[in-house]
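G., the chain you wanted modeled:
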Amino acid sequence: MRIHIDAERPAPRKLQPVVEALRRDQVVIYPTDTGYAFGCALSSPKAIASLRRLKGIDDRHAKPLTMLVKDLAEIGRYAHMGTSLYRLCKRLLPGPYTLVLRATSDTPRSMYNRHHEVGIRIPDHPVCRMLVELLGEPLLTGSVTKAEDVPELEEPELLEGRYAREVSVVIDSGPLWPDPSTVLRMTDDEIEVLREGKGELPFGAD
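Predicted structure as tokens:
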């Protein structure tokens, strides 16, 4: 099923079928500030396993999964960060960044990697914010286009056909060019750039 949504002014009632699918352990495709992404509810082990298969990331992979949260307070629930990192996050977010942080005990085991790290995003996109708000919990998220792939225009109609067996709903907000997020690992108040992407590098990052 494909649902047309105004990316700038999404209507909550039009997003209800997406929220219902997420609550039924389904994977959806939705727009973000860096392109289209797969999404599922953080509380659904079944959907997390499905998304792992879609992304080709098993539970022994060095790369952590990424969750989309609503605000900085929610980052503090699922990841550890000191005062200086909190200030930096406050400056960068919402925006096109993925932060790799040490996971807390509230983070599901299926989310983090062997180093107990988890990815965190707060995209600057109205649909993302509304989805998390309506669902009442974070979304596990993963870009439809891999960062190492040659960028191609992502067209919702084609995505619907390509992933018809794996995805129950596609939110169509028009074609998007994928532009991967900047990935920053933040541990012990240190910043390591894992990938330069759409987000500008913060001052002092090595």
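Helices lie at 12-23, 45-55, 72-78, 83-92, 126-135, 156-162.

Shout if anything looks off.
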